[in-house]
Amino acid sequence: MSVHKEVKRITTNTLQEMKQRGEKIAMLTSYDYSMATIVDDAGIDVILVGDSASNVMAGHETTLPITLDQMIYHASSVVRAIKRSLVVVDLPFGSYQGNSKEALNSAIRIMKESGAHAVKMEGGKEIAESISRILAAGIPVMGHLGLTPQSIYKFGTYTVRAKEEAEAQKLREDAITLQELGCFGIVLEKIPAKLAQEVSQSLSIPTIGIGAGRHCDGQVLVIHDMLGLNKGFRPRFLRQYANLYDIMNEAIKSYIGDVKSNDFPNEKEQY
Ligand code: KIV
Questions:
Q1: pTM for the full model?
Q2: Among 48, 88, 148, residue to substitute to test ligand 1 (most atoms within 8 Å of Cβ)
Q3: Given CA atoms 30, 36, 42, 47 in this order, what sign does their dihedral have?
C-alpha cells in the first residue's frame, strides 16, 4: 500500500465541471520552479506559463521578443514543481501565426519538451485552422480574446478593448468559433464587464477573465503583479495581495547591513 496521499490532478474536464456547478476557477502565472511550487501548494487550479515572462522575467517592454525555446525553459521549470495544477503554456509571438503546420510544430515542441498539459493562443477566426490542427493532434487549446498583447502594435495602446459594437460583435463571434473548434476555455482580457458576462453566459466552456469583471467563470492575474513585485504597476483591474517589493527590499537591506557590520555570519552560522 502506498504511503503517499493521492493528489487529484486538475484536468480540462475538471474546469468544465467547475463551470457546470458554478465553482470559480483560480488561475495565476508562474515561470520558474520555486514560484510554481508555492502556487501549486497553495491550491491554484491552473498555472499559466504566460508570455508575460517576456515582461516580468526578462524586462522587455512587450511580450513579442520571447522565443519558443525560452517558453519551453520556463514551462519545464514549472512542470517540475507541480503536483496538482493544470499547466497551460502560451505559444509565443511568431511561433504560430505563419501557418498551421508551424503552429502544430510549436505546440508539439511545448508538450514534448516541457511536459505541460495545454497551450494558449491569442486570436479568433484568423487562427482557426491552426487551432484545429493542434486540437486534432490531441493537444488541448485555450483561446485568448480582447486585449491580446501580442497585437499591441496593431492596437497602439493597452486600453480596454471591444467598447465599440463592431469589435464587441467580432469578439462574440470569435468566442463561439473557439468553442465550436474545441477549445477548453477562453481568456478574456480587458473588455467591458457586461460583454464578458454575456459571452460567459453564452458559452458552455469556461471563460477566465483579467480586467473583464466578476462574471467570468474564473480569474487570472500575473503573479508578480498580485504579489506587488512590480513596483508602480497598479492598473484598475489589479488587486494587490502583498507588497513583496518592500518586504524583499527591507530584507536585502538588512542583509547588506549585517554583512557590512560583520554581524553575519555569527558563531552559530559557521562551521
Ligand atoms: O501572458 C500572460 O500572462 C497572459 C495573461 C495576462 C492572461 O496571457
A1: 0.96
A2: 48
A3: positive
